[in-house]
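URGENT: need a sanity check before tomorrow's submission.

F., can you look over the Dihydrofolate synthase/folylpolyglutamate synthase record below? I want to be sure the sequence and structure line up before it goes out.
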Amino acid sequence: MDPLTAWVTALAGPPEGMVMGLERMQAVMARLGLQARLPMPTILVAGTNGKGSTVATLEAIYAAAGYHTAAYTSPHLWRFEERLRLDGRTARAELWQTHLGRVKGASAATPLTFFEISTLAAVLMITAAAADVAILEVGLGGRLDAVNAFTPDCSVITTVDLDHQAWLGDSRAAIGREKAGILRPQVPAVYGDLDPCPSVETRAQTLHAPLYRLGRDFRVDGDGGEMIWEGWGVRLPLPPLRLCGGGQWMNIAVAWASVQVLQKRLPVPIQALAQGTERLRLPGRCQESRPWGLGGPLLLADVAHNPQAIRQLAAFLTARKGEGRCHAVVGMLRDKDLSGNLTPLLPLVDAWHCVNINDTTRAATAGDLIQVLQVLGVGSSTAHPGVPEAVDAARRGLGRGDCLLVFGSFHTVSQLPAAWLVEEG
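Structure tokens as predicted:
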């Protein structure tokens, strides 16, 4: 655990505690002098999958247009500081310490969760930096999430699918209602589900919030091998993506639509859309690298941890795999749908290496995963104490043309060396 994570964990109390609601946030915001409406245009991004990619796309586009950007995301992969980027750069640890100290002083009489503390400190830094645009990723759900204490100028819901059912409900309709909690009366919203959830649309109608929906108001399509974004009466070619996976085109389409929604307040020239998208990087999202050189296997790292994301990963792997072998290293949290997450990959994986995740008590053990694989008909799989040991074992015998897949959780991918996944430039 890095130093800042340890400090915020100590401030918040037990790290597994999760208490939903906005009352604590609002009380401490008042003591800190923070208003719900920030001084710059603010975009809230919620959704089951695609939030991080959408935030990163918006950040890159506004930076290409010359704006000072602030992007708050969670969770982090390697270090706590990653949760806030100012003008594309990770906020310094000293800056975090200063503003975490302010939150600590203001919350002595109001115990806060880890995420609430992080969110308040990040917003203090964003306002101090006088960013031109704030892009804030919702942590869990929407309605009762700490980020929803702040007022959006554009609300974005990427997708609605099953995840965190213990907190959000056991159906897409229930989860959609929670995510639609970030909508505001008459504030425009962008929704990225090709299979729209009626509860999201109903909430938008109730609030008279204009809802721009993928597949109806804007779309992305292949045209002779070139991807085309269409919306607001224009057709624009999408540049080649560094991010892999078919789902990323949907996230890009949502981000481009969000830029159009805010075009009057934050004008963006057409060339900045392409320039920003071309520069886009986001570690651990269906990401390919070759840490063992051209003669070694391809590493594919993906934080996918719910059935929708796993289906997208399986589709990408099906298209990418070819004739080579695939060995998988998997670690997951026990409150996830273990069987539902493993099943789509069964036909694609030739050997399974299951790991313990050692930095959270929510983790499923390697033995838990092996048991699920056995029930699913996998005759043999191997347990390892952690990701490094599993990767060493899994890559033995693999060469050029083969794939080593590491997936299942942010906690799992974070155990890979950052140098394997962070691109320079």
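My own read: The chain has two domains: 3-278, 287-421. The radius of gyration is 21 Å. If you see anything odd, call me.
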